Amino acid sequence: MMRGTRLDGRLAVVTGGGGAIGAAVCADLVALGAHVIVADVRQDAAAKVVEGLALAHPWVVDPGGTAWSEDQGKAEAREVDLADPARITRFAEAAGPVDILVHNAGVTVVEPFTESDPASWDLMWQVNLRAPMLLTKLLLPGMVERGWGRLVFVSSDGARAGSGGEGAYAATKAGLFGLAKTLAREAAKGGVTSNVVCPGPTDTPMLRRIEADKPGLVERIVRNIPLRRLGTPDDVAGLVAYLCTERAAYITGQTLSVSGGVTMQ
Questions:
Q1: 169 classed as catalytic
Q2: pLDDT in tens, 202-251
Q3: Count of domains in the chain?
Q4: Could you tell me the CA-to-CA distances from 134 to 29, 42, 86, 88, 111 in Å, in that order?
Q5: CA dihedral over 198, 203, 206, 211, signed as positive or negative
């Protein structure tokens, strides 16, 4: 294994951990030795991720649902409703001394902006932007006090370049750019880095559900990708996990795309 990539003894929180990309991030962090809290509004989805990790490795699962092994990290499922500030606060208070915070959760409604319902904007603002702001505000002081921390915000290439039918989603996810860069400056003296990862077209259940209503969508998307394939959750997770390690200690305030070449800088 590459030097400086172990995360033994580090406590990580991954929001949206029950989804495809979130589950892949959790798997990579656990493989590096971290104790990962798989956080999701769906307790059953988070628990399924932990169960899957336990099946993939010779782990022990205790009655409380925490799984671990001697040579890898731990994983446990916890429920959190990111649309509810009170529940976010309770979650943060119970989490413990978090070293790594991956803001992966997100919700979207695909529809032309002029036909969109402002009520749906509220949910996207609450989950996609307000929740990362609040959760970071609660957990960042501990990182700074201990002199080490990693913040990774999972945004979207649609927020960087625009995405038809996702005006409100792109707007809320774009807000993470300014937040992450500001935190990169403010928390640097405390040994905390802050970066944004932007997935491009990625093969997830969400995309497949959208394609069900728009036959041929994936084929059209792939034709415009230089690498001629969709991304996978593992493609995104690899970069997220790397940014959480000591080898990425000199990378902060950056926005990085995982898009197969759709977005180039």
A1: yes
A2: 988 877 877 777 788 888 889 999 999 999 999 999 999 999 999 999 99
A3: 1
A4: 23, 20, 10, 8, 28
A5: positive
pTM for the model stands at 0.92
CA distance 25 to 38: 10
Whether 265 is covered by a domain: the verdict is no
Given the residues 59, 68, 153, 169, select the one marked as catalytic: 169
Domain enclosing residue 145, as ranges: 11-258
In a domain, 264, yes or no: no
CB 139 within 8 A of CB 99: no
In whole angstroms, how large is the CA radius of gyration of the chain? 18
Please check whether residue 190 is in contact with residue 147, taking contact to mean a CB–CB distance below 8 angstroms. Answer: yes
Question: What pLDDT does 206 receive?
Answer: 77
Q: Say if 96 falls within a structural domain.
A: yes
Does residue 225 contact residue 264 with C-beta atoms inside 8 Å?
no
- Read off the CATH number of the domain in which 173 is found: 3.40.50.720
Residue 102 near residue 244, CB atoms below 8 Å: yes
CB of 176 closer than 8 Å to CB of 131: no
pLDDT of residue 167: 83
Following DSSP, what letter does each residue of 173-224 receive, concatenated? HHHHHHHHHHHHHHSGGGTEEEEEEEE-SB--HHHHHHHHHSTTHHHHHHHT
Inside any domain, residue 6 = no
Q: How far apart are CA 164 and CA 160, in angstroms?
A: 12
Q: Report yes or no: 21 and 199 within 8 Å, Cβ to Cβ.
A: yes
Q: How many helices (H) and strands (E) does the chain have?
A: 10, 9
Residues 6+ apart with CB under 8 A from 246: 4, 5
